[in-house]
Each structure stands twice: as structure tokens, then as C-alpha cells.
Prior knowledge:
The longest helix has 50 residues, at 150-199. 81% of the residues lie in helices and 0% in strands. By secondary structure, the protein is mainly α. The chain has one domain (3-386): Sodium/glucose cotransporter, CATH 1.20.1730.10.
Amino acid sequence: MSSLDFIIIFIYFFILVGVGIIGTLKAKTSEVYLLAGRNLGIFMVFGCLTAVFLGGSSTIGSAQLGYENGFSGIWFVFSMGLGITLFGLLLLKRVMGLNLMTISELLGKLFNVESKIIGAVISAIYALMVSVTQVIAIGALLSAIFDWNLIVSMLIGGGVVFFYTILGGMWSVTMTDIIQFTIMTAGIFLIMLPNSLTAVGGFDGLTSQLPSSYFDFSAIGFKEIFQYLVTFTLGMMVGQDIWQRFFTAKNLKTARTGGILVGIYSLLYSMAMVIIGMCALIVLPNIENTQNVFSSMAFETLPTGLLGIVFAAVAAAIMSTASGTILASSTLIVKDILKDHFFKEITDRQFLLLSRITTMIISIIAIVIALWIQELLVAMDVAYALLAGAIFIPIVFGLFWKRATAKAAFYSILISSLVVLGGLAIEGLSSSNPILYGIFVNIVVMIVISLTDKTNKGNRGESEKIEASG
């Protein structure tokens, strides 16, 4: 890389730090810090929702899947975008008017305080693990750019993104998301994709040099596709980081439109990334560590100046997800556990301070776990398996089945969480089967306990209000 490329990247990092400092002045209430004042328009909501899930795993992971599998690698990212769109179409109307901050608040309204607490813990762990994946991804990127040690790279990259998140909260996250979404879109669609195709002789060159299986959208197998849809589509539908971004919208129509646009964008973005990975297989057929496909291809094909912009775009994608998920984890803990059970009488100003302190602690924990795991897709699998396997079914049953009880919800979350974690421990962290075990157990426990629970109480009052609002 040239000096110009390094300058571009450093300028971008300094802008993010500056936004964090400004955010300290703007985020003077907990509503602004956690939800940006609930007043965002369509473009802002669309940009924020897109930025939060198109992170390091989506960018680096999709290029890796394109290198290894071809077009069938799109299912990873598209499943995430589909989950956001489906939440907007199917569930958002039922929860938008409840003035929620967290997904576990809904569990509390549907069922009881025990379900709320266990839901907050599970959802916070999910958001934390997604943050971990982004710390690993930004570390891998900076290590490739600057030839730094991976641990040093994770400390510096994670430190920057968590710095502006701690200071400005959702206000800073929103501002940086729009910057990051713009840079990310330009960097991938206007620079990286055209240059990658040019390097292999265009799309005709791509089709003539790769086996036909690389152009088959089902090449990875229907079982794998199904597991992607179950893991990531369901996970996105009950992700605190996604809900929190939806709640920043000024009204239901704005939020729903933003969600639909995300689904369309996710398909286009996943196609672009897998094509870049496929081009890399032709240009660089012997990459040993396929996590480095994207960075290796960028070094090989991009000229001075453009290289810095593209790497800034990747950093943007990674940081936007990291900031959103770390704030989501912090919000769940500070709102549904600390404030509701330990600091009930604090003022809004004290709550804002508690939010910043909690965000800082969660950020440190995320970096520590990232330094320990150092495997991007493994951490991602653990996060979504736990969330989709434990939380999705109780939310859906609570919203749509009148006989679902509080006791059933609590035990279904608890038992399915243990099943998912036990499955991961036995079959390995990269196994996708535990999520299916968790969902199956979740459904069985919800139905059996709800039908046999003689009290049959705990969620009728609030859920009937929700049904009326829906």
C-alpha cells in the first residue's frame, strides 16, 4: 500500500473518533443515547439496518464462501437480510406501538419478569458474540493492511469503534452508520466488483474458467441452505441490534419500508461479494487461509488510492456491526437487569452514565473474548444458534398463540438454551445441528407446558393489548 492509501484509512478513523466526541454533546438523554430519539427517516433507518448486519462476517465471510462455493455462497448474507425484511412485514406492527427499548421487554409484557430476565441474558450474549466476530474481523483487516500482529490489530480496531460507541451511543452509531453505509456501497459496487471482474476478463471470463457448480445457487446443498435460513433468518427476526434500529424510526411506515429495502440490498450485496470471491479463485487459486480472500484480491487488483478507499469500506462494514451489537448488548443489561432490578430510582442522567459505563465494560469483555477465539465464522455460528434456538419460538408463540403461558416461556428458553450449548459442546462450535435441536425442544416445551399449566396465566393482559394494537 502507498502513503495515500494509509492516509485515507487514517482520515476515516479520525472522523469516526470525532463523531464519538460530538456524540457526547448530543446524547444528553437516555432516549437519544439508546434510540437516537426515535425520529429517523427512511434513508437513515435503511442505512442503519443495512450497516448493522453487513459487517465483517458478511463481507469477509461472503467473499470466502464465493471462493469456496460460488453463487451458492449468497445464502449466508441473504438469509440475514430476509430476516430483517420478514420482521418488518410480519412482527413489527405488533410491537412498534409499545414504546419498547429491548426485545426482552416484550417477553416481560407477554409473560413475566423471569422470562424477561432470561431473555435479556440470552439476547445480550448473542449481541456480545456478534461484536466479538467484528473485533476479530477488524483485527484481520488491520493485520493485512499494516502487517501488524493480529492481537495488536484487534486491540486498536476494537478500541476505536467501541470508543465512539461508548461516548455517543445510538446518536454516534447512527451518524457513523450512514457514513459507513455510503463508503461501503461505493467501495464494493463501484470499485472492488468492477476491478475484480476486469481482472478475469469480465463475466464471460468468469464463466469460462470456473466449473459449472460455481454458478449453481443450490450447490452447497438444500440442507445447508435450510440451516442458513433457520439460523440467520430467524436469528435476525429476534435480534436486539435489529429491533433497536427499527425502534429509531419515526413511524411504522418508515420502519417497514426500511426493512423491505434491506432485503433487496442484501441480495445485491451478497451477489457482489461472492463474485469477488469467485474472481479471486481465478486470480489467486492457492490462498491457504480463505479468510484472507477479500484482502488478497484487493491487494492484487486495486491501484493506489482506490485500495485505501476499499479497505476503508470494509472497515466501515465491520465497525457498523460492532457498534450496533455492542450497544444492543449494553442496552439489554442496563435497562432490563440493572435499572429494573438494582437501580430503580435513578434519574435519567444517572441512567445515561450507567449506560456508558456498562457499554465500556461490555466492550472490554468483547475484546477479551475475541483475543481468545480468533475464529470469525465460529463465533458467528455460536451467536445465532443461541438466539434463534432459544428466543424465536417464545416470541412468536406469545404474539400469536393465546394459550402460551409464562411458565412455558421461561422453561422453553432455559431448556432450549442448554440444549443448544450442549449440542455445540458435543458436536463442535461449527456444527449447525444444535440450533435445530434447540428449536424442536423449544416448540415441544412451549406446547406441553402451556397445555398442562393449570393456572394458564401470565401473559393474557398484555398480549391481548398487543393483539389489539396489531
